């Protein structure tokens, strides 16, 4: 059982770094998308040359080019979301592999009487499994939140709302990294 938990946490450490890399890439893309979206929404022709102000074809081509750039970046952001989902799927897969082993312990714990309690080591392993389960839940909530951001990003024209979306994407508000660090520290100390 200890090997299962070790494997989960080792895998988590690697996947967590990948998550942060793709999250940061997504932050850059959302920021760029927001800027281009706002530019397209609030084009001020006074900022452009006289030839553009007076030429509807040039204005159309400019908007068309900007729209293409937005479309390309939106596709890249969806690709980043796919990578984040892949990372979450690996975390969940580790949890699923460990579940049958730890379900037996959970059943033993719930059926335990005062004379047949789980050993200290079994309780510790069970707690670590439950902690890992909580970590996976945090990533699922963050993944769902990022999907909501992708779905709503182009619907707002308000700068403040868009800044909140970018900030929310970047900050992983559903993932409590301090708690995860504490869980990992407890795990490392328990196997020492």
What's the short story on this structure?
The protein has 192 residues and is mainly α.
Write up this protein.
The mean pLDDT is 87. The two termini are 16 Å apart. The chain contains 6 helices and no strands. It has 192 residues and is mainly alpha-helical. The chain has one domain (2-24, 80-191). Helix 1 runs parallel beside helix 4 and helix 4 (120-152) packs antiparallel against helix 5 (159-171). The longest helix has 56 residues, at 56-111.
What descriptive keywords fit this protein?
192 residues, mainly alpha
Uncertain regions spanning at least 5 consecutive residues = none
Assembly type of the chains comes to single chain
Give the amount of beta strand, in percent.
Answer: under 5%
**What is the helix/strand order?**
HHHHHH
Helix content: over 70%
Structural class of the helix and strand makeup?
mainly alpha
What does the average pLDDT come to?
A: 87
Distance between the termini: 16 Å
Number of strands: 0
The largest β sheet comes out as:
none
Shape: rod-shaped
Cα radius of gyration in angstroms: 24 Å
Helical stretch tally: 6
Q: Number of domains in the coordinates?
A: 1
Secondary structure topology:
Elements (H helix, E strand, L loop, with lengths): L1 H40 L8 H4 L2 H56 L8 H33 L6 H13 L5 H15 L1
Helix pairs in contact: 1-3, 1-4, 1-5, 3-4, 4-5, 4-6
